[in-house]
Amino acid sequence: MIVKKSTMDLIGRIIVYALLIVVSVLFLLPFLWMVSTALKPIDKIFTIPPQFIPQTFMWQNFTDAINAIPFWTYLSNTLIYAVFSMLGTVLSSTVIAYGFSRLRWKGRDTVFFIVLMTMMLPYQVTMIPLFIIFKNLGFINTLLPLIVPSFFGVPFYIFLIRQFMMSIPKEMSEAARIDGASEWGILWRIIVPITKPALWTVAIFQMIAAWQDFLGPLIYLSDESKYTMSLGLQQFQTAHGAIWNQLMAVSLIMTIPMIVLFFITQKALLEGLTLTGSIKA
């Protein structure tokens, strides 16, 4: 009986691992095809049957792609957008989440519910009003419309950090107040160090979102010197079609930093998601 049960467990694990491998390969195929296309000559991309492994590796595609566009300008704009929006999101969402989780004030839960309701509004609904506001402020054709909103908090991240903060014993805050600590001191010296896994999660999510954002730069930026990398990729789309090998080469360059970021921070990211997901509101 024990042997039969162990055999069934082994078969079950084999089936699970086989399914995971199949799904992983399906998810990896687009990335591998991007790598393959980036290393092919332009006339070998759409051959029948398709060549998954190039006969000749065209490393020149990368240098040609970088030289074909203001690559370093686009990259610096993207870094400015990603870093400052990440900092603004983490700072503002942390402060707001602290107010919703650790402070008691009349109407707190009602206001928090309203904040959560805004998550149901699609970006297309607020796109035109925001454009008009930023136009009146003179922010159009700058990176400010992309960065400034992050300093007012993001509802999903506020919810994520709030849930994590609610798991921290309130006795810690009360003891700090007895010792004379201010709310700011409690937040930055006690709550923030404990909340680091959730903050890392928010930082990584926002960094990735800003790094790959296309719609925002498309709406607010018209000067090519202000383009981000995602918007600059459209330069490889010509009237005669896309220059696919160079387009995939720059796309691969854009993808690698986010892959490296994930592997460096995956422990903190998974810890933040796991701990936050296990907390009850």
UniProtKB/TrEMBL annotation:
The superkingdom listed in its UniProt entry is Bacteria
Topology with respect to the bilayer: Multi-pass membrane protein
Primary location group: membrane
Q: Which residues cross the membrane?
A: 14-35, 79-100, 112-133, 139-160, 242-264
Q: Which GO terms describe its cellular component?
A: plasma membrane
Annotated SUPFAM superfamilies: MetI-like (SSF161098)
Domain (ABC transmembrane type-1): residue spans on this chain:
75-265
* Keyword line: Cell membrane, Membrane, Transmembrane, Transmembrane helix, Transport
UniProt keyword Cell membrane, yes or no: yes
Q: Key word Protein transport present in the record?
A: no
Biological process annotations from GO: transmembrane transport
Q: Where in the cell is it found?
A: Cell membrane
Tell me which family the UniProt entry assigns to this protein: Belongs to the binding-protein-dependent transport system permease family.
Q: What is this protein called?
A: Permease
Q: What species does this protein belong to?
A: Caldanaerobius polysaccharolyticus
